[in-house]
Every structure is written in structure tokens, then in C-alpha cells.
Amino acid sequence: MRRLLACLLALLPVGGAAHAACTTLEHEGRTYAMCEVTRADDLRLFHSGPEGLYGSFAAINAALEPQGLTLAFAMNAGMYAPGRAPLGLYIEEGVELAPIVTAEGPGNFGMRPNGEFCATDAGFAVIESRAFAAAPPACRIATQSGPMLVIDGELHPRFLVDSDSLYIRNGVGVSADGQTAYFAISDDQVTFHQFGRLFRDVLGTPQATRTTATIDRPRALRRG
Fold first, then answer.
1. Distance between CA 129 and CA 148 in Å, rounded?
2. 170: pLDDT confidence band, cut at 50, 70 and 90?
3. Which of 3, 10, 43, 214 gives the lowest tally of CB atoms within 10 Å of its CB?
4. Alpha-carbon dihedral sign for residues 111, 89, 82, 185
């Protein structure tokens, strides 16, 4: 059975030769699970199937089993309203299912700048929302979340080094050449400043964004 890479309600790398290089990183005394995806991998978004919302990694695996496929990597991604309708841009297999949101609003999602993770035939990108809206690329898949963690090599300007806002966090950053995406989730509660430093200082991604809201660690990342 072929192993795939994926993200619940969002991203899934899949395919015959697809594999996620997953590892544990340690930075500043904290540990993170990190999976590296290349342009050669088949990364997909999963939200709903013929019987409705997937809602779990197990449901995605069950839907893929008749195709001889199984998840190798999966992570929650995107922002969702009650009922799990996408909040902000959501593109699956080139079809826009929810529009981009560029207005400032409450909560972390509304903390500008926020951004889109986009996969095209040429590679990956994390793009600030208003820049994306002004010149949208041809995304095969895309999901919007916020706040951005790293913007042009700098941490989000509203992150505080001495913040006491500690949560399990996940996010995605993209290499400077757009050929590699790094998906990471903290093993322990961290601040945005601490999490952003992982992408900036360890993974070296010039652009990175949070991928989902406050999450339950065991459901957030699955490695086959």
C-alpha cells in the first residue's frame, strides 16, 4: 500500500514516491515535530467527501484505502467556522470553495498581516493576504490563516518576546526557492515569538504562517 502525506481539513502530500521527511527538532529547550515536503510530493487538501465532512485522519485514510493509498503525514490546517466551513481562502484542486478575507478583525486570524499557504505546479509559497488578493497565483491548493509568523525574514511585528500567551501551535514555512515546505507543531505550549523563531532561525524560512487555531496536540499531527 502506498503511503501518503496529508493534512486534516486541509493539506495532504500524496503519491507513489511521496514521502514526508519527519523529525523532532529541539530549539531553545523546546521540542517540535517537523515534516518536510518537497514539490515532488503530492500535497492535497481534504475537507469533505461524498458522505460529508471527513473530520478525522482516520476518515481520510478510510476514503483513500480503496485507492491503495494511506497517509504518511497529516496536519490540521486552515481556519473554520462552526460547522467547519472554511474561514478565509480555501482552494482545493484548483477550485475556490471560500473567498479570501483581507479586512482586519478580532482574534489571531485578524491580526494583520495574516497569510495564505499556496501550492502551485511550480512550488510552494506563503503570501500576505492583501498581496495575494492583489495578484493571486494559480494555486492548486491554498488555505488562509493567521497571524503570519515570519514576514520577509522578520518576526511578526506584534509578537512580544515576553508574552505569556502559551499554546500548542502549528504552522508552515516555505524555503526561499519555493521548493520545500516545512510543517511544524510544538510538543509543548509556546508563544508566537518562540514559534516564529523556530521558522526564522532553525528552518530558515523567509515566510511562514500559523496553520490553524488553538489545537489538541494528539489530533494535530499524524505520521504514518
1. 10
2. very high
3. 214
4. negative
Residue 5: what pLDDT?
Answer: 45
> β-pairing, 115-120 with 141-145?
antiparallel
Nearest to 108 by CA among 80, 75, 148, 142: 148
| Residue 100: closest CA among 65, 123, 130, 70 | 130
Residue 45 has which C-alpha cell? 487538501
| Residues 24-56: tens digit of each pLDDT | 999 999 999 998 999 888 888 888 888 888 878
Q: Report d(CA 3, CA 52) in Å as an integer.
A: 24
154's grid cell: 522578520
**Rounded mean pLDDT of 70-74?**
79
Nearest to 25 by CA among 186, 150, 161: 186
Question: Percent helix, strand and coil across the chain, each rounded to 5?
Answer: 15, 40, 45
Q: What is d(CA 36, CA 165) in angstroms, rounded to the nearest whole number?
A: 27
Buried b (16+ CB within 10 A) or exposed e, 171-185: bbbbbeebebbbbbb
Quote the CA–CA distance of 30 and 194 in Å, as a whole number.
Answer: 9
Domain positions in the chain: 2-223
Q: What angle do CA 91, 94, 98 make, to 5 degrees?
A: 25
**What cell does 51 get?**
458522505
